[in-house]
Amino acid sequence: MTRDHIFHEHGFGKVAPWVDLVNSEEWDGFGKRKDHLADPYWIDAFLKHWKLHPAQSNHPPRRELLQLRDVLRRAAGKFSVGRSLSRQELSKLNRALNVPTRQKLVQHQNGFRSEVVPVRSDWSWVVARIAASLGEMLANGDVERVKICANGDCRWVFYDPTKARIKRWCKDSTCGNRARVRRARAAEKRTA
Ligand SMILES: [Zn+2]
User: Fold this and answer.
1) Kind and range of the H or E element at 76?
2) CA 31 to centroid of ligand 1, rounded, Å
3) What confidence tens digit (pLDDT) does each residue in 77-103 have?
4) What's the CATH number where 135 sits?
């Protein structure tokens, strides 16, 4: 992935595959939108980073990915205001998770390990893994820290690691700063 493929240095691959998929629809902070799902380089970088490359490499199923992204963004919006998934959203996620798998016993240096592997390592498995990454965060209670940048022209989904969960912007130096400048200007106008 080159710099041309991202608007700003938001960071990629920091939280979970599902967060990156949501952020593949990116705004530059001023309202200009870019869809990285249309970019094969982005998709390749995404798959490489999360080690999700399907063994049977068929074309990315654009419609399924867009549908999943849509559900995931709505979910992120809800988590960011302390709400949970609707029954409909849950069943959409379960549909994405519904791929045939099998157990496999793997021997390593210190013994054995049981693994769940896909019956077919294709894009439906990738989609399932993306959905599963949200499932894991839900099960761990981590989604309470999922936020959407308070800059309405940015909407970047991020993970708030602060103890008090007070982070409002994807980045203080960009969106946070912009909001402060805007507030200062508004205050100047009021006193002028
Ligand atoms: Zn932002």
Assistant:
1) helix 62-80
2) 11
3) 999 999 999 999 999 999 999 999 999
4) 1.10.3300.10
Check if the beta carbon of residue 33 is closer than 8 Å to that of residue 26.
yes
Q: How many domains does the chain have?
A: 1
Distance from Cα 148 to the centre of ligand 1, integer Å? 8
CA of 191 to the centre of ligand 1 (A): 28
The CA 9 to ligand 1 mean position distance, Å, reads: 11
Domain that holds residue 151: 3-191
**What's the 32 CA to ligand 1 centre distance in angstroms?**
13
Q: What is the pLDDT of residues 120-134, one digit of tens each?
A: 999 999 999 999 999
How many Å apart are CA 6 and CA 26, to the nearest integer?
A: 8
